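name: query_chain
kind: protein
chains: 1
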Amino acid sequence: MVLEDKLFTVKYTPDTVSHLKPDNEVCKTCEKKICTIICPAKVYEWDDANQKLIVNFENCLECGACRIACTKKCLQWQYPKGTKGVTFKLG
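structure:
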């Protein structure tokens, strides 16, 4: 089973407001945009035409890789409100 198939089985209860808040002005100066590469759930996409980071927060696995890897340290990250976000199952 490939990663994409496994991600398809994860249950999410998305909030209406993102728990991930990048500073788009700082993102414009980032050359590598590592968040678009490191996220296993592909939460981040760079929109070249609008010079903006698109955040698909509904898919977030809450692993925190993006905030650790961000070289510009411009991502405000917090866990979603209670009962929102990803639901992990045992076994």
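note: The radius of gyration is 14 Å.
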